Amino acid sequence: MSPIHRTSPAPATPVTPGREVRVLSVHQPWADGLCLGWKPVENRTWQTPWRGRIYIHATRLESRPGPTRLAPFPPHLHPEILSLWDRPGSRTRGAILGSVDLVDIVPLGWIAELDRQIQRGTARESFLPELARRWVHCGATPDRLQRLERLVRPFSERGPGIVFSLFLGPECWIVEQPRLLRHPVFTPGKLNLWRFHLPDGAE
Asked: From CA 156, how far away is CA 161, in angstroms rounded?
């Protein structure tokens, strides 16, 4: 699936009263990756009690991924991810692009231990109950770890270290169900998880 390509510069979107939503500002090309589903995790230094729909705002800043950061993604996506620097203005910045479901936030240590067990070839039926007991004080449950293991396994099976090119932590925000807006909503970004009245008709 190709990243989101827009014409730049784009006209400002008129802001009209609408539904209040939670928004997270993310650098490109990772904002595209979240909204299109090829990036299932957002790495932060902080947590939030919020779970559910969050909207992804592409900041005006860019983050050029090197070979290590590209390693988890299918090779056919690499040219598209890097195209931002080959064709300035090919990606939308300074706008809300879409939304995802924030389903969990887990520490990087959980990801590291799951990766270690998968690399060792340990049967999930053996290590998932044990980890749930070990981390019960942190809110771990078998179901929660099983869903996380299903997400981590394909990256672990691609080789040692691949997982840590995607899951950087220290807090890993796990997202699902990406959905694009009908058109980008241009607005300045903010820090942390912020509130915004999404104009009617944007979805």
From this structure: 8
| Helix 124-134 with 108-120: angle, nearest 10 deg | 150
Contacts of 14 (CB under 8 A, 6+ apart): 199
Cβ atoms < 10 Å from Cβ of 154: 12
Query: pTM here?
Result: 0.84
DSSP state of 75: G
- Within 10 angstroms of residue 97's Cβ, the number of other Cβ atoms is 26
Q: Beta strands 95-107 and 52-62: pairing type?
A: antiparallel
16-57 tens-digit pLDDT: 567 899 999 999 888 988 998 989 999 999 999 999 999 999
Nearest residue to 60 (alpha-carbon basis) of 189, 182, 183, 180: 189
The one-letter code for the residue type at 138 is C
Q: Which two tokens stand for residue 176?
A: 């699902």
Beta carbons within 8 Å of 78's beta carbon, 6+ residues apart: 70
- Mean of the per-residue pLDDT values of the chain: 85
- CB burial class (10 A; 0-12, 13-18, 19+) of residue 20? exposed
- Residue 129's nearest CA partner among 113, 112, 108, 146 is 146
Which whole-number Å values give the CA distances from 166 to 88, 114, 122, 171, in the listed order? 25, 14, 22, 12
Q: Return the percentage of the chain with pLDDT > 70, whole number.
A: 81
**The tokens of 39 are what?**
């990036």
